Amino acid sequence: MKFIFSPPSSDDLIRLLKAWRFWLLGAIAGALIGAAVYYIAPPPYRARAVVNVDFHLEQAWPQNTPSEQFYYLERETRKLEEIAMSDTVLNAVASQVGGVTVQQLRGRELQLSQPGNGGWHFFADDSNAQKAEALASAWAQAFAQNVQTQMTDPATSLEKYITAVPSQTQHLTAQRSVSLSRYLLVGSIASLATSALIILFFDIKK
């Protein structure tokens, strides 16, 4: 117990430096393990579609202070986020793509990134690349269509100046959500940490 809680010494550093071959082998072994995990249980594919959202501040709030404009952007952004994950939009996605439920879409299939004034990124994950592309495309188009529909509805709570125009919904390219290089890096780091513990706590003879 005293050995575990004793402060580090110069001998510990010397032991670590002398075991550079063990470190090197551990890093290589960790990278190989990471690669094996990647190919045995690969991460899902991820596709991205983009919708250009413009709040048209110059028309909506032409004479107001920056603080009021900020409140306006925050309020309307929250409304648009709710629309993106609404029953109407997700049911349209599930109906168009098929083989997926709204619960699955809300749980792990879809992620929304960069909400605000500009490009909204609609990410979709799936083990099948074509399905991931179809999900991302359908989600972005259903969102944009729903926003346009609400703009023509007098009872809507959205500001009438907001526009949502799909800019990237066709010919999408799905890639793995986590790259092979990250698996290699994590495997190497984990193996190096394990190697350090082995060197410090076990007396490895040459």
Summed over residues and divided by their number, the pLDDT gives a mean of: 83
The 3D shape can be described as elongated
SS-based class: alpha+beta
Number of beta-strand segments: 5
Number of helices: 9
Largest sheet: 5 strands, antiparallel
Return the domain count.
2
> What's the CATH C level of the largest domain?
Alpha Beta
**CATH architect. name of the largest domain:** 2-Layer Sandwich
Q: What fraction, in percent, of the residue positions are helical? A: 55-70%
What do you see in this structure?
- With 206 residues, this protein is an alpha+beta fold.
- It folds into two domains: 8-41 and 180-201, no CATH class; 45-176, Alpha-Beta Plaits (2-Layer Sandwich), CATH 3.30.70.1130.
- 59% of the residues lie in helices and 15% in strands.
- Strands 1, 2, 3, 4 and 5 form a five-stranded antiparallel sheet that branches.
- α3 runs antiparallel to α9 and α6 crosses α8 (129-151).
How would you describe this structure in keywords?
disordered N terminus, 9 helices, alpha+beta, elongated, five-stranded antiparallel sheet, 2 domains, 15% strand, Alpha-Beta Plaits, 206 residues
